[in-house]
UniProtKB/TrEMBL annotation:
PROSITE patterns: EAL (PS50883), GGDEF (PS50887), PAC (PS50113), PAS (PS50112). It comes from Cryptosporangium phraense. Residues 149-219 form the PAS domain. This is EAL domain-containing protein. Gene3D superfamilies: 3.30.70.270, EAL domain, PAS domain. Residues 223-275 form the PAC domain. The lineage of its organism: Bacteria, Bacillati, Actinomycetota, Actinomycetes, Cryptosporangiales. Residues 446-700 form the EAL domain. InterPro entries: Biofilm_reg_signaling, EAL_dom, EAL_sf, GGDEF_dom, Nucleotide_cyclase, PAS, PAS-assoc_C, PAS-like_dom_sf. Residues 305-437 form the GGDEF domain.
Length: 705
C-alpha cells in the first residue's frame, strides 16, 4: 500500500474525496508502524468512521474536544495500541487534517489550529487512558510490554509539535516534551519535578491552582484556561492550558495531562475584534452600545450613588461636512473627539451618532458638577480647529442630566439627556439645557411623534389634500397644491406644522415626501375639465429631498406608475433654500417637462439673480406679502414691491402665483397687477381628493364656491 497525497491545493477534490484519502493515509501509517491486527480494507473502513467523528468534533458549535478521547480509545480497542500509533495519528492530525476540514461543504472554523490542538490532546488522553487500562488488566508479559510502550510513548511526546506534559494530580511534572520546553525556554531535564504554576506571572498563579482544585474536587473532567507566561524583560506571552485528569479503574485520579500552546497572536486578534465591536473606528471612542452597557452596569452594581450625563450635538456639522468634504469632516470629528477627552478628564466619552457625543460622569454630587464639565466642553470647542487650509470654530447643543444611580434605567437617562439636548438646540447655537421633567414633556411628545413616523408610513397614515390654484383672469382651475396631513391613530388629523419640522430633523421627510409625490400624481391623473387643459399637481419638496440622489429616478418612476404627463407635475422649492439647491437634478427634471416653482418669495428675498440660472417656471409670492397689500395700513411701498415682483417674474418669462388670497380686494388688486394665478381661502380651503374632483367641473371656480 502506498500513501495517498492529501495535501493538494485548496479547491481540488470534494469533501468525501479528502475524507477517504485521509483515512487511507492514516491506515497506511498505522500499518507501517506495527503489525496490523486488521486487513487493509478493514482498517480503512474503521478509520473512515473515525475521520467523520473527528470532523464532527472539530466543527462542533459550541466547540467541545472531549469526545475526541473516545476516538483515541477506540483506536486502542481496534488493536493499534502502540505509542507509535498515537504519534503517527497526532502527526497526521497536525499536518493533513486541516486540508480535510477545508474541503468540507460547511465553512471551517476560524480557530482551526487551536481546535486541532485541543482535539489532539483529548485524543492522546483517551489513547493513554485506554492503553493504561489494558496494561492494568493484562498479564505479566503485557505489563512488561506496557513499560516498553510507556518508554516509546515518552519518545513520541518528545517529538510532538505542541507542548504536552504529564503530571501528578497536584500539578508536579513527570514527563514533558520538547514542545513545552521550547515554550518555557528551558531544557526538558530542568522541568521534571517542577510545577507549571512556577512559570506564570505571579498574578496568574492562583488561577491555575484553582483549576487544579476544580479538576480534583468536581466531576468536570477537563479545564481550559489562558494565563500569561513570565518572561525576562516583561515580554508578553499568553499560554492556553488544556488540563485533563486520567483516573485508574477505580476512579482515583492518577495523572494530569496538559496541552500547552502559545496563543499570544490569537488573543491579540480576539481582543482587537472585541475592541472594534465596542469602539467607533474613526474616533476611537466607545460606541453607543458600549456606552449604554457601561451605564447599565454602573446603575446595577450600586457602587456609585449618582451619575451625570452630557449629551451633545455639534451645531451645523452637516454644513461643514458638505462644504469641506467627508475626508475633512472625518478629520474634524477625530480632532473633536480628542478635545472632548481633554475637556472631560476622568469621564467616559462616547460617540453616540454621526455628530452626537455623550459624556458619563460618576460620583457626582449635583447638577453643578455636570455643568462644570459642559462649560469646559463649550470652551474646548470654541478654540479654532485647523482642518487643511480652513480654521473652524464649533459649538454644540448640550443636554445635561444628573440623577441618582440606584434603580435608574440607563436607556431612560440617555433619552432624557438626548431630549434635553434637543431643547438646548432649539434655544440657539452653543446652548446648554438642564433636564427638567416638566419642560421635557413636550420634547417627549415630539420624540414619540418622530419615532412613530416610519410605522405611520407603513400604515399609510399620511394623506394629501388639495388647495386649488385658480387663474385670476378667468377664474378657471389651473392646478392644485398638494398639502400633506397625518391621520394619526391616536391624535387625529395633524397639520404639517405638527410634524414636517420633525421629519426634516430626523430625515423622515424624504420617504414622506416620496409618498406625497406618489399620492398627488395618482390623484392628478384622475383630474379632467371639459374644454380646458387638465389641472396640474404642485408638490412641495424639502431641501433634503432635492439633495437626495434618487430624486429624479423617483419622479420618473412615479410618473410612469401613475400615467401622469410630466407637464402636469409642478415641484416647489422654498425660496429660503434655493441657494443651497443642487442645479443638476433641477435641470434634469426640467428636461423631462416637469414644472419647477420657487415658493414663498417675499420682499426681502435676496436671491432673485438665481432665477436666471435655474430652470424655474413659476414664482409664488408669499401669503404674508399679499396680506400686507390690504392690511390695516397698506403702504404704497408694499404695493410697489409686489408690482415689481410680478413685473420681474413676467420679464423672466415666469408665471406668477399669489398665495394667501382671502378677500375680494386682494383678488382684484392682484389681478390688476397682472398676477397670473391665485391660491387661498377666497377660492377654497384644502380639499379632500374627492371633494377637489367635485370642485372641478363646469364653471369658474369663484362662481362655484
Amino acid at each position: 500500500m502506498t500513501a495517498v497525497d492529501v495535501t493538494r491545493e485548496e479547491g481540488q477534490g470534494s469533501g468525501d474525496d479528502r475524507r477517504r484519502a485521509f483515512a487511507t493515509n492514516w491506515a497506511w501509517a498505522l500499518r507501517r508502524a506495527g503489525t496490523p491486527p486488521l486487513t487493509a480494507d478493514e482498517t480503512e473502513l474503521r478509520l473512515a468512521g473515525a475521520v467523520g467523528r473527528l470532523i464532527e468534533i472539530t466543527s462542533s458549535e459550541p466547540f467541545d474536544a472531549a469526545p475526541a478521547a473516545t476516538v483515541g480509545a477506540a483506536l486502542v480497542g481496534t488493536g493499534f495500541a502502540e505509542p507509535v500509533a498515537l504519534g503517527e495519528s497526532i502527526r497526521l492530525l497536525a499536518a493533513e487534517f486541516p486540508a480535510v476540514l477545508a474541503a468540507e461543504p460547511a465553512p471551517a472554523p476560524t480557530d482551526v489550529p487551536a481546535r486541532l490542538a485541543a482535539v489532539s490532546a483529548e485524543f492522546a488522553t483517551g489513547f493513554a487512558a485506554a492503553t493504561r487500562e489494558r496494561a492494568f488488566t493484562a498479564q505479566s508479559d503485557a505489563q512488561r510490554a506496557l513499560r516498553a510502550s510507556e518508554a516509546r510513548f515518552r519518545a513520541v511526546l518528545a517529538g510532538a509539535p505542541a507542548g504536552i506534559a504529564l503530571a501528578t494530580p497536584d500539578g508536579q511534572l513527570t514527563d514533558v516534551n520538547d514542545g513545552l520546553a521550547n515554550l518555557l525556554g528551558l531544557p526538558v531535564s530542568t522541568l521534571v519535578g517542577r510545577r507549571l504554576v512556577e512559570f506564570l506571572v505571579p498574578e496568574h498563579r492562583a488561577g491555575l491552582e484553582e483549576a487544579y482544585d476544580h479538576l480534583r474536587t468536581s466531576e468536570v473532567p477537563r479545564v481550559r484556561i489562558e494565563r500569561r507566561l513570565a518572561r525576562p524583560g516583561g515580554e508578553e506571552t499568553w499560554l492556553s492550558l488544556g488540563l485533563s485528569l486520567v483516573a485508574d479503574e477505580s476512579g482515583v485520579p492518577r495523572w494530569l495531562t496538559a496541552l500547552v500552546e502559545d496563543v499570544t497572536e490569537q488573543r491579540a486578534t480576539r481582543l482587537a475584534l472585541l475592541h472594534g465591536s465596542a469602539h467607533d473606528r474613526l474616533t476611537g471612542l466607545i460606541n453607543r452600545d458600549a456606552f449604554v452597557e457601561r451605564l447599565t452596569a454602573i446603575v446595577r452594581e450600586r457602587g456609585v450613588e449618582r451619575v451625570g450625563l452630557c449629551y451633545l450635538d455639534v451645531d451645523g456639522f452637516k454644513v461643514f461636512n458638505d462644504s469641506l468634504g467627508h475626508p475633512a469632516g472625518d478629520e474634524l470629528l477625530v480632532a473633536l473627539a480628542e478635545r472632548l477627552r481633554s475637556a472631560a478628564v476622568g469621564a467616559l466619552v462616547a460617540r453616540l451618532g454621526d455628530d452626537e457625543f455623550g459624556v458619563l460622569l460618576t460620583g457626582t454630587t449635583g447638577i453643578a458638577d455636570v455643568e462644570l464639565v459642559a462649560a469646559e466642553i463649550t470652551r474646548a470647542l470654541a478654540a479654532p480647529f485647523t482642518i487643511g487650509d480652513s480654521r473652524l470654530t464649533l459649538s454644540a447643543g448640550i443636554g445635561l442630566v444628573e440623577h441618582a444611580a440606584v434603580d435608574a434605567d440607563a436607556a431612560d437617562l440617555i433619552r432624557a439627556a438626548e431630549l434635553t439636548m434637543y431643547r438646548a438646540k432649539a434655544e440657539g447655537r452653543g446652548s446648554r439645557a438642564v433636564y427638567d421633567p416638566h419642560r421635557n414633556e413636550q420634547q417627549i411628545a415630539r420624540y414619540a411623534l418622530s419615532t412613530s413616523m416610519p410605522a405611520a408610513l407603513e400604515r399609510d397614515e399620511f394623506v394629501v389634500e388639495f388647495q386649488p390654484l385658480v387663474g385670476l383672469a378667468d377664474g378657471r382651475v389651473r392646478g392644485a397644491e398638494a398639502l400633506v396631513r397625518w391621520r394619526h391613530r391616536e391624535l387625529g388629523l395633524l397639520s404639517p406644522k405638527r410634524f414636517v419640522g420633525l421629519a426634516e430633523e430626523t430625515g423622515a421627510i424624504v420617504p414622506i415626501g416620496r409618498r406625497v409625490l406618489q399620492l398627488a400624481c395618482r390623484q392628478a391623473a384622475r383630474w379632467r375639465i371639459d374644454d380646458d387643459p387638465a389641472p396640474y399637481a404642485s408638490v412641495n419638496l424639502a431641501v433634503s429631498q432635492f439633495r437626495d440622489p434618487g430624486l429624479v429616478d423617483d419622479v420618473v418612476r412615479v410618473l410612469e406608475e401613475t400615467g401622469l404627463e410630466p407637464g402636469r407635475l409642478q415641484l416647489e422649492l422654498a425660496a429660503g433654500t434655493v441657494a443651497a439647491a443642487n442645479a443638476a437634478p433641477l435641470r434634469r427634471l426640467s428636461a423631462l417637462g416637469v414644472r419647477l416653482a420657487v415658493d414663498d418669495v417675499g420682499a426681502g428675498w435676496a436671491n432673485l439673480g438665481l432665477l436666471r440660472e435655474l430652470p424655474v417656471d413659476v414664482l409664488k409670492l408669499s401669503g404674508g406679502l399679499v396680506q400686507r397689500l390690504t392690511g390695516a395700513e397698506p403702504s404704497e411701498a408694499e404695493s410697489q414691491i409686489l408690482e415689481s415682483l410680478v413685473t420681474l417674474g413676467h420679464a423672466l418669462d415666469l408665471q406668477v402665483v399669489a398665495e394667501g388670497i382671502e378677500t375680494v380686494e386682494q383678488h382684484d388688486r392682484l389681478r390688476a397687477l397682472g398676477c397670473d394665478t391665485g391660491q387661498g381661502w377666497y377660492f377654497a380651503p384644502a380639499l379632500a381628493p374627492d371633494d377637489f374632483i367635485r370642485y372641478l367641473p363646469g364653471s369658474p371656480a369663484v362662481a362655484s364656491r
